[in-house]
Amino acid sequence: MKYISDEKKELMDLIEALDVELIHLQFTDIIGIPKNVTIMAHQLNKVLESGITFDGSSIDGFVRVEESDMYLRPDITTFTVFPWTSSPKEARMICDVYNMDGTPFEGCPRYILKQAVKESEALGYTMNVGPECEFFLFHTDSNGVPSLEVHDQASYFDLAPMDMGGNARNDISLTLKQMGFKIEASHHEVAPGQHEIDFEYADALKTADNIMTFKMVVRIIAQRHGLHATFMPKPHIGISGSGMHLNISLSNPNGTNAFYDPKDELQMSSTAYHFLGGLLTHAKAFTALTNPTVNSYKRLVPGYEAPILIAWSLSNRSPLIRVPSGRSESTRLELRSPDPSANPYLALAATLKAGLDGIKNKIEPPAQISNNLYEYSDTEIDELNIERLPSNLYEALKEFSQSATMREAIGDHAFKRYKEAAMYEWNEYSKYVSQWELNRYLRKF
Amino acid sequence: MKAVRSKILIVEQQVSIRTKICTWLSQEGYAIFECKDAFKTLRLARQILPDLILLDTSIRGINTKQLIEIIETDQLSKVVLTAESINDDFMQLLDETTLKKFVKKPIDRNDMMEIVKASLVAINEAKKAKSQRDRELTDSAKAAAIVKAKELIMSKWNLTEDQAYAYLRKKSMNYSVPIEYIAKAVIKKYQPKP
Q1: 4-aspartylphosphate modification sites (chain B) (predicted)?
Q2: What is the rounded distance in angstroms from the CA atom of residue A273 to the CA atom of residue A276?
Q3: pLDDT confidence of residue A3
Q4: Cα–Cα distance between A104 and A73 in angstroms, integer?
Q5: Does residue B126 form part of some domain?
């Protein structure tokens, strides 16, 4: 049998030794929904040689019917066996999407992030990201339809028996470890039924792949526990929502942290300040990507540790960006607005581009805020010239549409398609008459 | 000492059948739990770890084959199927179970009791055999660690075998830990790196 390279031969040998029978070829659409084509293991050699075609017009945000043939090319380095499968054993590979002429598809989110990473590397930086993903575990009814009934009534860092979701969370962590993740922390979060698992930082592309894998594993293992896992940002009024804080740093070509400068008062380099300046400058524009649903903005409200104002602080958790206390190789910026419904490839591409723009144009950030911003009145906030994050998806899309930096960050195709998809979402939501409105207005007027 | 009651989870969609099975098994002295869908089955099974699950093959939620695979692979319990018809699909499901036992509907009390009792006996025998195997493995692993640790100490400090064992025993008593823990610590410290 003819193999393209030794690396691919090694992979085929591994697949045979592990008795893998099914391989899921995974990719992500523009909205951030995972997609999947399954092949038999014996077909992989052919797929590695010439890819596998699919109809791109059936994927949200990809192409129209007239230009629909596309193909997937697996990234060998992402081969992972699913530990929960035994007979048959199943594995996956993450794929890039290509046009039929062999050029990368410009709307492929993975390709978009790769382009941003290339730009960063040309400047001598590698972006590293450590995400903190939160999610809820809910019961389902007898038809498997998720409810809002939580599996426990525990709270922040609570232990069993209050934390009945702990078993599912432990299983999720163990499964991720078997798939090569380095789990840094796993604990119950503030709201009943809410959990958080943090894994080690990696470069931007690997982190985005990891976030998609993480969400898949959480859902599957939750289901094996009879639970429904959701990354919906705010499923319940009156309790904390689920965020996806991003701990961001840049490293130099020699691997040292480009954000660290021991001589600075805060031990932060000018690169760090300018990257921070870029993030703050473009925050309104990239929010449509980091907070992509109408529900995302129900989380960005005062009182639940989610940011609403575009500011930064060393210690305070209320503004958009916090600079955690770790220094030297741990120097980083914590972007607190993103939520886990975001497409991680686009979110990281946008934030990287924003930060790089700050570096290129030497954007200085404003002074940091030391007080709790939730306690400031609107007048005080205006006097301090602190701007607010968009308060709904429509405002976010308006800012996004006007941003040349965001257009450059994700390319013309994705920029246009993303806007269309998100506006459609907003329009559908706007037409909907909610129970809140009925309760409030039906008898009043 | 009071005998521990075996826990049985009844998974059955139809209320009348479920009530009947629960009543019969309860009268026989078993601790009974019940539910009617696949997701609740998984939640309950992980909470109570029943000795046996009587599983209706027509319940809703997750695909039954997958449900059996989760229950048995994750060692939550063992499954006895209940079904109205025995056909090829059913036989495939039966093949997924360890016990390979089933109760045909309409359920006859005596038939069901026989199968439940036989299943629990088989489960207990298997548990005992596994405990015994685990103990033997642990004992032999323990013995191997102590032998290895003695060899390392004897070689390092020129001691006799008795002296090396006395060293390990003294450390074990001083730190109030089992002797095999001391042996593993010695191996970790003194085993030559490859």
Answers
A1: 56
A2: 5
A3: 45
A4: 10
A5: no
Rounded to the nearest angstrom, the minimum Cα separation between B61 and chain A is 5
Instruction: State which residues form the domain around A383.
Output: 115-437
Which residues neighbour A156 within 8 Å (Cβ) at sequence distance 6 or greater?
A187, A188, A189, A190
A344 pLDDT band, cuts 50/70/90, is very high
- pLDDT at A157 > cutoff 70: no
Q: Are residues A60 and A124 in the same domain?
A: no
Note the helical H segments in B28-178. Answer: 38-48, 64-73, 88-96, 109-157, 161-175
CA separation for the pair A299, A46 (Å, rounded): 46
A72: helix, strand or coil:
strand
Q: Domain limits at B149?
A: 133-190
Nearest to A143 among B44, B47, B60 (CB): B60
Residues of A in contact with B60 (CB under 8 A): 142-144
What is the torsion angle, in degrees rounded to the nearest 10, for the CA atoms of residue B30, residue B35, residue B40 and residue B45? 10
Query: In terms of domains, do B19 and B96 share one?
Result: yes
Of A368, A225, A374, residue with least CA distance to A300 = A374
Q: Which residue has the higher pLDDT, A5 or A221?
A: A221
Of A263, A258, A262, A289, the residue nearest A358 (C-alpha): A258
Residues A20 and A130 in one domain: no
Identify the residue whose tokens are 């969400």. Answer: A215
**Residues of chain A contacting residue B69, judged by C-beta atoms under 8 Å apart:** 86
pLDDT at residue A87 greater than cutoff 80: no
Contact B69 A151 (CB under 8 A): no
Chain A residues touching residue B46 (CB < 8 angstroms): 167, 225-226
Q: Name, in order, each residue with C-beta under 8 angstroms of A375's C-beta and a sequence gap of 6 or more.
A: none
Contact state of B43 with A223 under an 8 Å Cβ cutoff: no
Give the torsion through C-alpha atoms of A104, A110, A111, A112, to 10 deg. 140
Contact B42 A226 (CB under 8 A): yes
Active site residues of A: 55, 132, 134, 189, 196, 245, 317, 334, 336
Å between A223 CA and nearest CA of chain B? 8
Say yes or no: A236 and A98 in one domain.
Answer: no
Chain B residue numbers with beta carbons less than 8 Å from the beta carbon of A84 are 73
A1 pLDDT more than 60: no
Strand partners for A74: A95
Q: Could you tell me which residues come within 8 angstroms of residue A362 by beta carbon, excluding any fewer than 6 positions away? A: A270, A274, A277
| pLDDT, tens only, B121-138 | 999 999 888 888 888 778
Q: Which helix (H) or strand (E) is A135 found in, with range?
A: strand A126-140
Residues of A engaging B, defined by a Cβ cutoff of 8 Å: 84, 86, 139-144, 151, 164, 167, 223-227
> Chain A: nearest CA to B34, how far in angstroms?
13
CATH number of the structural domain spanning residue B75 = 3.40.50.2300
Q: How would you label A7-27 residue by residue, b for 16+ Cβ within 10 Å and e otherwise?
A: ebeebbeebeeeebeebbbbb
Q: For chain A, how many structural domains are there in total?
A: 2
